[in-house]
Design the sequence.
């Protein structure tokens, strides 16, 4: 696959960032440094699927997989059910990807966790959701976003009393996933804003963990003592909105308040700002990562590279990307300038500074800057 000289140089710098944390090893010689890469929405159907059929299963990630493979932990939102089950959704937007091939492409690209809590995961009903989990398990990709719903009980309650079924659904928590990195047990939870699940209420929406304050609090408190560091992923907000909604900000801060260290946001299809809060990090939206949308803003993307020292944040950087032919690649000069200007404006409202460092954007708390209040 052809790689332009500029892109190759950018990837080399970013790969070095992910490979070489700033802090020196501990005196005892044990290296507690490790890295996390966060990406936005991955959609492996529709136009992306056609590109895969023309090329190969590695096509969507060919220009950036050197980064996600290099990270100790790489996380994204999987927007596509991986299934051959028939569609149940009345929506015209149909995103199914291939089954095991698609799951393997995620694994080969270095993705360790994917979020399944989104408004498309139930598009093919319960069967499609279960098929997706099965293929991901086969490929070794961990996932979260499913509730512990007893579907037989839910169906029985719904047949007898819709209010009883709703109360049962609202009592469910997200089932966590865990993975150990350099001796640190990392927990992963994933949630979707309830209004996005209304369309699937009759064909599998109850399987998706809901991003409401009660569910988030219950899930975080249940998982936090079983791991050293907790990452919460949220499908939330409004499409194409430049700034996070008050609901996003309240839920993100709630997750940090209760014990999460990193919040990973997606759904708006555009980049939103990054906030540092009480020793944690909230990335409100990382936009699209692999997608076939054609307008300019949804094609602006970024990979968020986080250096960790044990369970503490060490440094944070954004690699500006642009989606070309449905896959991400390092942004060219014009695209880099546009993304830099956008992220500076977005982050400033959240009390965060964005400072260019070669081809990267270093992200850090802005000294003395007051954040916009959460209403």
Sequence:
């Amino acid at each position: 696959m052809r790689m332009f000289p500029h892109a190759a140089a950018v990837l080399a710098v970013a790969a070095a960032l992910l490979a070489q944390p700033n802090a020196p090893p501990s005196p005892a010689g044990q290296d507690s440094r490790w890295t996390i890469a966060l990406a936005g929405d991955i959609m492996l159907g529709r136009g992306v699927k056609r590109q895969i059929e023309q090329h190969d299963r590695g096509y969507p990630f060919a220009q950036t997989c050197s980064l996600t493979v290099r990270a100790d932990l790489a996380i994204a939102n999987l927007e596509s059910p991986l299934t051959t089950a028939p569609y149940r959704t009345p929506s015209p937007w149909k995103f199914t990807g291939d089954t095991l091939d698609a799951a393997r492409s995620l694994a080969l690209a270095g993705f360790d966790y994917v979020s399944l809590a989104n408004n498309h995961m139930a598009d093919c009903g319960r069967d499609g959701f279960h098929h997706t989990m099965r293929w991901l398990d086969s490929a070794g990709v961990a996932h979260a976003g499913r509730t512990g719903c007893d579907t037989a009980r839910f169906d029985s309650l719904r047949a007898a009393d819709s209010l009883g079924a709703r109360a049962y659904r609202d009592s469910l928590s997200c089932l966590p996933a865990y993975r150990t990195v350099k001796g640190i047990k990392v927990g992963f939870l994933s949630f979707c804003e309830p209004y996005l699940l209304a369309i699937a209420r009759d064909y599998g929406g109850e399987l998706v963990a809901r991003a409401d304050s009660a569910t988030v609090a219950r899930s975080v408190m249940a998982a936090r003592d079983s791991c050293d560091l907790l990452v919460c992923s949220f499908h939330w907000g409004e499409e194409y909105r430049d700034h996070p909604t008050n609901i996003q900000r309240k839920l993100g801060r709630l997750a940090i308040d209760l014990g999460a260290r990193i919040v990973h946001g997606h759904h708006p299809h555009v980049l939103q700002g990054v906030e540092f809060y009480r020793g944690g990090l909230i990335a409100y939206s990382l936009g699209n990562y692999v997608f076939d949308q054609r307008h300019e803003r949804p094609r602006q993307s970024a990979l968020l590279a986080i250096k960790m020292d044990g369970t503490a944040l060490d440094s944070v950087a954004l690699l500006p990307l642009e989606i070309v032919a449905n896959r991400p690649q390092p942004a060219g000069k014009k695209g880099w300038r546009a993304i830099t200007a956008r992220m500076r404006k977005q982050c400033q409202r959240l009390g965060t500074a964005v400072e260019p460092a070669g081809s990267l954007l270093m992200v850090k708390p802005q000294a003395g800057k007051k954040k916009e209040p959460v209403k």
